[in-house]
Amino acid sequence: MKKIVMLMSLCALLFHAGCESKHEEKEEETEFRVTSPLEKDTLITREYVSQIRSISHIELRALEKGYLQKIFVDEGQFVRKGQLMFQIMPMLYQAEQQKAEAEANFAEIEYKNTKSLADSNVVSKNELALARAKFDKAKAELSLAKVHVGFTEIRAPFDGIMDRFQVRLGSLLDEGDLLTTLSDNSKMWVYFNVPEAEYLDYKTKAEKDKQTKVNLLMANNKRFKYPGVVETIEADFNNETGNIAFRATFPNPDGLLRHGETGNIQMTLPLTNAMIIPQKATFEVLEKKYVYVVDKEDKVRSREITVAAEMPHIFVVSSGLKKDDRILLEGLRQVKENEKIHCKFEKPESVIAHLGLYAE
Fold this sequence. Notes:
Helix content: 25-40%
Shape: rod-shaped
């Protein structure tokens, strides 16, 4: 009898221990945080690869034949408008100018004498007109000779920076030979290509008669400290790429930017009723983005989404989710497809606020 009592006591003890174990397991069941997409008007920043150009970048070429006699500047030097840069040997043209001056003086004297005789009715008016024509011709030839002499001096057409010399001192130049290039870097034109869909969004949302401000991310991944403005858009799309070229103008008072540099244009655009979710609520499979959606029965199911824009901590979703969908916020590696979970819903406003997001 005593053995039976002891056996019953042992069974009761084991049963009680089992119940406590199940109770503890239930209490230790993981609670997952879930939230919903947040619809909000916000700002998105898009980046475009860009090419940086001077507002004026020209080739300086020889206008006359001859030897390069003098170089008054150096490569990379800043020159002022009108500053003498190159001198082509001018002796031949100076001799032609002296000859033209002499002929002009002779024609002037001959004209004055003929006019004096015409006033005294010694010669006819036709002879006076002929003398006048010879004088005018001589003056025209003198002007042409002076132009040729002027062509032997190459002067800066505007303030700018010299590029590499294509010739050296003493080079024999032919008419049209390239000497160097000159760049006006006081302002820079930055060209970037925009896809057709984004161009349409831009034109739809851009305010009339208001220029859009943009920033320039330089090749060293630092932002240029002076913002620019979009001033013009090309007329035609590129049928091969589906893009259209925009041009932004940037001030360059420090001369940091140079012709031929590259960078990325950052353009901030307003987005109405954007559906945003935390980046940490997503995972990637074969370069596609997914989230875990929690259904009415608290079961998790993976769903592919399309990301329209990326910002710090968040994604803007263009398709794959609805406003009322519940998505798993954390513990994505701890769940399996179709697994039922114990979850706690958190308001999307609170979740986004804790990500340090600024949206308006």
